[in-house]
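Example 3.2
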Amino acid sequence: SDPRGGASSTMKLNIACPTTGCQKVIEIEDEKKLRAFYEKRISQEVDGEVLGPDFAGYTFKISGGNDKQGFPMMQGVMLHHRTRLLLQKGSKCYRPRKAGERKRKSVRGCIVSHDLAVLNLVVIKQGEKVIEGLTDEKSAKPRRLGPKRANKIKKLFNLGKNEDPRERIIRRKIVRDGKKDYFKAPKIQRLITPERLQRKLKWKAEKRQRWEKSKAAAKEYNDLVTLRNKEERERRQSYKEKRRSLSRKLSEKKAKAAAAGN
């Protein structure tokens, strides 16, 4: 860095190639080459030819970076400088140590600027020229683990919808000194088997039975409420008629008594 405190034009590019599993770090000191990355955001693509003729035909995607003090870039923060954000569980660039903990931490915005020390790139498209240590077959690292999800196993081996992915699962050999070797295989996730389908049918049948039972209970309750209301209305009507009859008899008795007095 500049001893006077000014910005240095040196930046490291950490380039990753998903197809070979390799990474390569190159240091760029030419400001003209770095200008192509300035004002770009995370997830934007950059033509690799700006780095030189060796990278002609390559396309890189910006995946992140760190500034000279080690603060990481954070996707979604539309700034080219550092800022302090209140982060919680589920936030990027933060790992809570206690339940419900929140913390204000410094993060860098997702826009590339000259303050960065390292910029992370991912190879999206390869060019004609092979880069040693990145895209050459000699440096390629085989995947230690195969896919685990059923659909991804089918996609890898181009299996049909009704084919069983359990026959194509990738196993790795575990070698132990003085003991018998054995193989490890992942437990396939989201695997559709006849047992699974039968279980789902059972769950649906149980759910429908609960719904029918609830519906029958609700109908029985509503019928009982209707009957109780009808009985209550009849009781009140009977009471009112009885009161009217008594009142009528009392009025007739008073009328007769008045007529006899006259």
